[in-house]
Amino acid sequence: MSTPDTSALIENRSLEEKFDPEMRFRPLLPGTAWLVAGLLIALSLFHYYTAGFGLLREATHRGIHMAFVLGLIFLVFTAFKADQDRVAPSSLWRPGGISLIDWACAVAVAVASLYVPWIFTELAFRVGNPTPTDVAMGTILIVLLLEATRRSVGWPLPVISIGVMLYAYFGPSMPGILQHPGASWPNIVNHLYLTSQGIYGIALGVVATYVFHYVLFGVLATRVGLGKLFIDLATCLAGRYAGGPAKVSIFGSALFGMISGSSIANTVTVGSLTIPAMIRVGYKRHFAAAVESAASTGGQITPPIMGAAAFLMVEFLNVSYQTVILAALVPACMHFFGVFMQVHLEAKRAGLRGLPSEELPNAAKVIREGWQTIMPLAVLLMVLFSGFTPYLAAFWGITACIVVGVSRIPVVTLGFLAAVAGAIAAGLLTQTIFVLPLLLLVMGLMIYTYVTSEAGKAKVLELIDAFVVGAKYAISVGAAAATVGIIVGIVTLTGVGFKISFIVTSFAAQMAQTMSEFLPVWLMDVNSMTLFFTLLMTAIVCILLGCGVPTTANYIIMVTVAAPALGLLGVTPIVAHFFVFYYGVLADITPPVALAAYAGASMAGADPFKTGNTAFRLGLGKALVPFVFVYGPAMLLVTPDFTWTSFFLVTAGAIVGILFLSMAFAGYALAEMRAWERWLIGIASLPIIAPDLKTTLIGLAIASPVVVSQLLKMRAQVAPRPA
Question: TRAP C4-dicarboxylate transport system permease DctM subunit domain location, by residue (predicted)?
Fold first, then answer.
């Protein structure tokens, strides 16, 4: 396995654009491309500067971010799919190859976005009593925001937003409990546009304050070689063992996912190396693609960066980012453990080999050549866990990426690391007297590198391009977050969230009451069954919603609508948030719209639907673990009633249950399994996973005949044959 060349990287980018609507950028004429690149760099530099030197006033910061994001969407995304693969010629009606309508929309949405910060001093007197100009500007922003989201993310989110606005307007005509007094269009615009509970709300604020910086950091860290280091280390660690490339896929995706936070980007980047290698050692094509996509979905749940939803949790729950990272640690390990065990057992059953020694990189050489690339991640974590804000940590992580990108001289990188550590100890990290001179030194290093050699010039241009690509990757998330603000705003305006929660919990209680007639109380009482059915319905809605809505938007919608239902049943807020977050991510490998699985299938030349089904099966650990930490919240480590006894009981049961379920799917444990063994151990795995000692013991009792049978088979296989 070797690092992909330039042509492979171009092919990976095209696959991302094919399967991820957020990456389908229009080709531009050279002059327009330079203008757009300049705007993207300006957007990146705006966030980089404010992260290091202090955020602007809330409304101003969010308004500038949204003006850039939405304006750029009309320039980099076409209105129709048919136009996204061709460069349009420049003309009177299409200056620079972009239609006058798109130019007008870009300007109009930027003006409407900046209008609220402009009138901020008067806003306190206008909220609740908007002027005709306010309503006109708000209407322009809402309409163009929906169109920008349609272009960059797709139809589902705008359609949902239009539906909830119609619900707000036609409230008196709604049936039963969903009926409400209704709101006029000026009132809807007032709530969504002029208050902080709508478009300019938490979702947009988190993207503008945290998410953008970490997307940019992930792109820069990958460009300086951190992704390559992780993949090479994974190959050194696992490549030699049975089914080696598949295990490399799992470890590589876990490590790479820490900096990418994107299922599809993870799949095509790591998969470009691992999928061909898996096929070469004997895995079926659909299985190879499924392994990579299932492992890659773990990127959004793997600390320290995770996906955008992690930063939203910080704001929604009012907890530190360190708390979210700690809570995510064990469930993420459970996901990768589940995928690993199925891969390992499949390799044992099929007798697959590992990679030959000549294909394995030398560990000492990998570390010697790439150790400096881990410095940006080390700086980011050092600042983050010293109690500073996530965006300040990202600022220093990005700065470290620049240092590593332009200089691989050990004294320079270690000197930068020492300077940051010393500033933390001395309390100078946020002081201009320290920050400004250090940044000037970094800029001087960039200029020196640029002018001294062609190789240095290429390094600097590569970093500048990363600022362009990072901004491109973040603009779709910004549009989706602003549109979700419409949904959240209507929920707060109408109070429909609690009504839906009441409907869900009432229906779940009826189902639980019916089931209680067939199940003994000591196994599961009515309250536990009510919670179970509520969780089941929430999980199904999360997966269905995730088929057309990005993970971040899915999470916000479900937290707004479903989390109150779980709260009514006594679920701790952080547990409820993690539950909907996990099932939103699971949609990436759940047919019929399993985008990560389809990207992997394209790379493997496999059947997409078959790949999606297999990927979902491989990711069942991620599907079961959320139920475990709802009933046994000690797994998240940060819940109020945490005890180490509960933690070990819950985690040990989950590990054994996932292991048994993996055996059932693979048809192999210590030896080949017959049909009755697979069914019995599969059934036994479910009560073992349940975080209760009684059900765990029942599951172990059910599994005991299979364990005995497998031990006897193994003894028969290793026993010497008679002469």
Answer: 141-639
Q: Is the peptide bond before 705 cis (omega within 30 degrees of 0)?
A: no
Sign of CA dihedral 517, 522, 527, 531: negative
**Cβ–Cβ under 8 Å, residues 222 and 255:** no
Q: What percent of the chain has pLDDT above 70? A: 93
The rounded distance, in Å, linking the Cα atoms of 477 and 212 is 9
pLDDT in tens, 201-237: 988 998 899 889 988 998 898 889 888 888 888 888 8
Q: Which amino acid is at 552?
A: T
Q: How many other β-carbons are positioned within 10 Å of the β-carbon of residue 295? A: 37
Tabulate helix, strand, coil % of the chain (nearest 5): 80, 0, 20
Using DSSP, state whether 135 is helix, strand or coil: helix
**Nearest C-alpha neighbor of 309 from the set 211, 380, 205, 377:** 211
User: Between vectors from CA 265 to CA 264 and to CA 270, what angle results, nearest 5°?
Assistant: 105
- Residue 293: name the closest of 525, 81, 611 by CA: 611
Cβ–Cβ under 8 Å, residues 491 and 557? no
Q: What does the pLDDT look like over 674-685, one tens digit per residue?
A: 999 999 999 998
Q: What is the dihedral of CA 426, 432, 436, 439, to 10 degrees?
A: 60
Please name every residue paired with 672 in a beta bridge, in sequence order, or none if there are none: 668
For residues 579-604, average pLDDT: 80
Cβ proximity of 685 and 657 under 8 Å:
yes
Tokens of 59: 């409304």
Q: What is the DSSP letter of 524?
A: -
The CA distance from 106 to 94, in Å, is 14
Angstrom distance (rounded) from CA 641 to CA 158: 41
What gap in Å lies between CA 453 and CA 451, rounded to an integer?
6
Q: Are the C-beta atoms of residues 584 and 577 closer than 8 Å to each other?
A: no
Which residues in 556-634 belong to E strands, given as ranges? none
Q: d(Cα 434, Cα 663) in Å, to the nearest integer?
A: 57
Q: What's the N-to-C CA distance of the chain in angstroms?
A: 45
| pLDDT score, position 705 | 92
What average pLDDT does the segment 563-576 reach?
86
Residue with tokens 């881990």: 374
640-649: per-residue pLDDT in tens?
Answer: 888 999 999 9
- The DSSP result for 344-412, as a single string, is HHHHHHHT-----GGGSPPHHHHHHHHGGGGHHHHHHHHHHTTT--HHHHHHHHHHHHHHHHH---HHH
Helix (H) or strand (E) holding 152: helix 132-152
| CA 395 to each of CA 38, 59, 190, 358, 437: distance values in angstroms, whole numbers, following the listed order | 20, 21, 35, 40, 15
What is the Cα–Cα distance from 657 to 686, expressed in whole angstroms? Answer: 7
**3-class secondary structure for 665-691?**
HHCECCCECCHHHHHHHHHHHHHHHCC
CA distances for 431 relative to 54, 142, 298, angstroms: 11, 40, 37
Is it the case that residue 569 has pLDDT exceeding 80?
yes
Chain centroid offset of residue 289 CA: 19
To the nearest whole number, what is the mean pLDDT of the chain?
86
Instruction: Please give the structure tokens belonging to residue 455.
Output: 């190789």
What is the DSSP secondary structure assignment for residue 195, as one 8-state letter? S
